[in-house]
Amino acid sequence: MSNFFLAAATLWQRELVRFWRQKSRVLGVVASPLVFWLLIGYGSNDLARFYSGALVLTVMFSAIFSTISIIEDRREGFLLSMLVSPAPRSSMVLGKILGAATLAWIQGLIFLAFAPLAGVSIHLLELIPVAAAIFLISFTLTGLGFVIAWRMESTSGFHAIMNLLLVPMWMVSGSLFPMSTAHGWVKAIMWVNPLTYSIALLNHTLRFPNAAPGEMESLVVTAVFGLVLFLASGIMAAQKATHSAA
Amino acid sequence: MIQVQNLTHRYGDRTALSNVSFEVRTGEIFGLLGPNGGGKSTLFRILSTMMVPTAGRALIAGHDVVRDSAAVRRQVGVVFQTQSLDKALTVEENLRAQGHLHGLRGVVLNERMERAMERLGLADRRRDLVETLSGGLRRRVEIAKALLHKPQVLLMDEASTGLDPAARRDLSRHIESLRSGDGVTILLTTHILEEAGRCDRLVLLHQGNMVAEGTPAELRARIGGDVVVLQTADTALLASKIEQRFGVRPVVRDGEVRVEIANGHRFIAEVVEAFPGVIESVGLHKPTLEDVFVDQTGASIE
Questions:
Q1: Nearest by CB to A241, which of B51, B94, B105?
Q2: ipTM above 0.90, yes or no
Q3: How sure is the predictor about A245, in pLDDT bands with cuts at 50, 70 and 90?
Q4: Three-state secondary structure along chain B?
Q5: What is the pLDDT of residue A246?
């Protein structure tokens, strides 16, 4: 059991060290959502409305950035030696997802520093639920990235999925328009879109008015979605290959 | 130490490995020689527990690579053809992470790391980022990494690919010292004849089939005598004439006619005499592993 955590911890640490050595990554991940947010926010004269969406986008970019590396890493990189080591695959999944989620979380927290621009002032004690919500969302989106990346043979496939699935998913999550004003079928998509609940959860913890769906519902859906993705990642990684991309 | 029994692997309809069987003894340096696409890498992936074969089985130190892959992974060190290092980490950090994956920690891990860096001449580069190292040094880090958990068996896939001759010699020196110093059994894949010649025993793989097995000397001895290489304008014509006249079977390859024959020097005199003005150049050499491969398959390795 201690070997399980040792392996997971070393992978987690690896993600953080790599990140620290490539600090320009922070800029890339935080800057583009920040620019989108400022343009749309100032353009529509409503920075507050788009704030949660932009923060989730930051987290999503970071999660994608970290998990996309799995594709290359498995063919030519550190993941290769992990695959032939006796460390359980589940420890590898845990280490990778927690590591990548931590990075997404840190970048989400950096984005949080711009909250005052949206008219949000957070007191120290309030910071705890906000930070916890951002971590949960980071964990969930990293799990989503892992599930997509694990079977991918090339990074270009991942880019296609990002543009056709992840970005549209973000657009209809309440990030750009609220569910209450959405048209019939878009509204239906928003109902089943797990990301809707992530945005709502963040809106609740930041005390934005008229956040929907409800707080408890948002928390439960986000947490369950994250857990399901985490388990799916573990199951996928434990399967034995009869074919190798390398 | 390694038993491969009737191993077969298919990717869809393509057969990459067809009913291959051989055994590697403890403390041997054993080579899988063949051209790219011959089945070496498929065999390597199966032995390193990365892939499940379609049929047959393989045992390492008595453990089945499919059913008992966890036990196999504890006994085996793997050096990949592609890099398996984290370039953004230092030499030391890579080794430490690898040790953790094998459940090593603390004083034990520190000692193992020291020893591995020492013996592969990496001690003074320990704090360098891997991305700043040369190809030869990186390969040495890979080997150091594969040795941390003291494996009984080291599997190496095209370990000398991309290395300059000096780094290649250096690598084979390290391989030899592992075998003689630590009794590690080594299985390596290669398409480089020089490297194959240094193995204790070899298996020749071609299109997924095992075409020959033996020591390099045994394999060379299969071709009795000498190899005579003739160059001429019309190779096919010359080959058929030689066949008629001398009763031997020449092989035409790469614009040359090759004849395997005892007493090559005598044959050269006769053949030049027999077809005056036809032969442009003549060569004679003792059989190489390349000749053995050509003899068995009609194809060349490199």
A1: B51
A2: no
A3: very low
A4: CEEEEEEEEEECCEEEEEEEEEEECCCCEEEEECCCCCCHHHHHHHHCCCCCCCEEEEEECCEECCCCHHHHHHHEEEECCCCCCCCCCEHHHHHHHHHHHCCCCHHHHHHHHHHHHHHCCCHHHCCCEHHHCCHHHHHHHHHHHHHCCCCCEEEEECCCCCCCHHHHHHHHHHHHHHHHHHCCEEEEEECCHHHHHCCCEEEEEECCEEEEEECHHHHHHCCCCEEEEEEECCHHHHHHHHHHHHCCCCEEECCEEEEEECCHHHHHHHHHHHCCCCEEEEEEECCCHHHHHHHHHCCCCC
A5: 40
